[in-house]
Here is the input.
Amino acid sequence: MNFEEIKGKLPEKAYEILSQDIKKLLPCQEKSVKKGLFEGKNLLVCTPTASGKTLIAELAFCKAIFEGKGKAIYIVPLKALASEKNKDFLKRYGKVMRIALSIGDFDSVDSYLMDYDLIITTSEKLDSLIRHHTPWLNLVSTVIFDEIHLLNDPGRGPTLEILITILKKILPKVQIIGLSATIGNPKQLAKWLEAELVEDDWRPVKLHKGTYLQGKVELK
Here is the structure.
């Protein structure tokens, strides 16, 4: 699918920015559009690393923010990854939307976030904000969970599961976008999220399996 085919569905500001670099949608991006990305549907996107999942999130939060539907929250598992995403999104959207990074003190309500459109944070920090009854949460319309497969992680999984459960309850109309390269039970997770499942095995570099022995590689 050529990028210009979604021009009518994407806010003008977003299209002007993204069309400078993107001419064609990758397979998982096209599937996400067809599964209801622009109609506010929940999506669980399970595709290989570097297959274009981040752009799906960008399309979702641009739609919400530029059309005045509400704030967007981008959730990642690590502070370092949050800082990286913040840097990337500021470079692309810093002139047209207000972007905030919230990964600090868990005892802070961070009321200043009321003035921002896109909030990048970790699941632990957002859990803290919810417990502190952050007043701007009811203004959120889109939530992206990057690395959502960490629901199975013994350390971060319980917090992430509780967080999703609470958000679904307090924001019944929120659009949830889950992104992952590895999920063992995608259909069950999609059902729990009440999401459309997007699966694809396309990757920019083909993987080959083989055996290395004594300096030689034998491919299967």
